[in-house]
Design brief:
The structure holds two protein chains of two kinds.
Chain A lengths: L1 H13 L4 H9 L13 E6 L3 H17 L4 E6 L2 H14 L5 E5 H8 L21 H5 L2 E2 L2 E2 L2 E6 L1 E6 H6 L15 H14 L7 E2 L11 H6 L17 H11 L19 H6 L5 E5 L3 H7 L4 E4 L12 E7 L6 H11 L2 H11 L6 H6 L10 H9 L3 H7 L4 H17 L4 H17 L1
Parallel strand pairs in A: 1-2, 1-3, 8-9
Antiparallel strand pairs in A: 3-11, 4-5, 6-11, 7-9, 7-10
Helix pairs in contact in A: 2-4, 3-14, 10-19, 18-19
Chain B lengths: L4 H38 L2 E2 L7 E2 L3 H7 L2 H33 L5 H9 L6 H12 L5 H8 L11 H29 L3 H9 L4 H12 L1 H16 L3 H6 L11 H11 L3 H32 L1
Helix pairs in contact in B: 1-13, 2-13, 3-7, 3-10, 4-7, 5-7, 7-10, 8-9, 10-13, 12-13
Classes of the chains: A alpha/beta, B mainly alpha.
Chain lengths: ~425, ~300
Amino acid sequence: MGLSRRAVLAGAGAAGLSAGSAAGLAGCGFAPSSSDSAKDTLRFTTWGTDAELAGFRTTIAAFEKAHGGARVELNAVPYEQMFTNIDAQLQAGNPPDVFRVPYYTFGAYAGRGQLLDLSSHLPSGFSDRFTPQAWAAVQRKAKPYGVPHHTDTSVLLYNKKALADVGVTDVPTRADQAWTWQQLEQVLRKLRTALPASQYPLAVNWQGNGVTRWLSWLFQADGRFLSADLSQPAIQSAAGTAAVDFTRALFPDKLVPPNNSVKSTTLAADLWYGGTVPLSFGGAFQLPDADSAVDFEWGASPAPRDVRGGGDFGGNALVATAKTKRPGLAASFLAHVTGEDQMRAFCERASLLPTRRDLVAKGIRFQVRPDLSRVFLGQAGVVRASDSGQVASPSMSGIISVLQDQLEQTFVGDQATAAALSGMTSGIAKALAA
Amino acid sequence: MSGAALPRARSAETRTAYAFLSPTVLLLGLFVFVPLGWALLISLQHTNGFGEGGFVGLRNYGRLLTDARFWRAAANTVLFTVLVTPLSMLLGLGVALLLDSALPLRALFRSVLILPMAVSGVATALTGLLVFDQDRGIVNAGLRSLGLHAVHWQSGGVAAFVSVVVVTLWWRVGFNMLIYLTGLQALDPLLQEAAALDGAGWWQRLRHVTVPLLAPSTGFLVVINVIYSFQVFDIVFVMTGGGPGDATSVLVTYAYETGFSQRDQGYGAAIGVVLLVLTLAFTAVQWRASRGGDVES
């Protein structure tokens, strides 16, 4: 018994990286059936909220109607399983034709030859439908390996009464009028003075892979973490120093809860829902949950700005796998889901932001809290292509780990700013070289 | 039976034995030895998560020597094992002694204590979070209601480690109790009676009669608890994620992070193989020691 448990866990749980495990996953019902090898059937793997999955089903129905004989087999999996599942399928040579991927994970697949180069499969001028920052997020060496299906970005969600109680009633709603870092700090200090010791002014949503949202501070200080050609670390800078200094000071000054660090298992949203903080960073995707879970009056304000406005280019791309036997059909599907009507319906239903220029210009209205649509759209507008393009680096998985380690040591381990930047620089260099 | 019939009977018996063994051998081979061999192979490669890896010999093992995070995770794993193994066995023995006596409702208590064994590690950890959540957990709510300071169960390194140990104990004590209870019920009551007649008190009977007679159960539990502790993953992953910093990072969470989050699968596999070697070494030592004890007794 000891031997078998030891072996199973050591082999599959810890080291569990073998293609044997991968084949096991693929053969145990995690993978969509490959028996349906019909010529016009696409296998599409995704995770999603109920609203997102309903949106995908509607889109698929419209696609199948428009492409007589074509079929799209939707395989919805929990997010927690999504990428171990996809990786196992890719290793086993049995990947889906199309799958959904966050922008910060996109590069790991595009940079390792796992995705279909769409250059020759998309019509000329196809890129014109997207905003520059969205199109930059699906590029690898100037070629598109996916389509930007939607984006999301973080703004400040706030408890109106808590802010009013400290005299803050004029809360900005336009990105160009967002609080500066100094103004935000003043609000946080007012809240700190008024709140009991068990409550804190702010929670930041940089937990887990959300550590890429820390980069918003860097972008707001007009910094970069990678050089323009994405080949060298560039975080050792005045902007990097400013971003680390500002965010690390939040902890000793008790402006954020001590368990709001980047490796914490407590999410910022839970701290806000539970009333531990009156102010929290959150994305548009949280609006339906917030609308039903929060029993206080709340609003949204753009993320703060420093040298300039900046934010995270969140959201997901849709990609086709390099080994798909139906590249043309897959490209048609990707073009279809990013059509104006399809994208509008999907984003409005699921509280997500469009990546199309026309929809950004015309605006959309979320089905839940439509009054906040403009705040999120405005915030997404300050994200630059030079920012989102860095996150598409194929080394992003390694860079995320470096950011997590260094920021955690800085926020809860008293690491100095200079040491943090030095650690980030050497770690990013190693990640780029790996 | 004739001389010719005997070899035929033996041959049939052998075939039957192989037939009975074959499903187990097949399953062990497929789900244990093949993945293990594969993990060993991957640990000698540099991989990016896809396609064939490049052979790098023992370079991944060399990296371990200078990786401070690996050593921190190894030290945490050892500390966790040193704390959880004796504590879960002591508590298990104590509860087993209680339930072996004429305790009212002992069937109910036994069921309640065994219940956590039926719950998955993830569910156990989520329950642990309800109790130890820093902001809204039951323990801190109780402390605040008494006017005491809340404990930083997620942001304080020592407190986070303690919370993981306590939840693991809750999960494991039932199993230890069950094994000890089985051992206790197999003991000859005449030995206890003889010791009592010789004037031995409760503590002396426990120390000099019961505990030595439970040595086989103890030996089994030491091995199992050490193996479980070396492999701890789900409770740490859900409750603390290895944090704050690396205060609760253990070898398996670190292997998972490197293998699956960073897609440095060769290095992750090397950590897994080190864990396997440590576990095998400990088990071999323990078996050898217990066999020596058997011979002496």
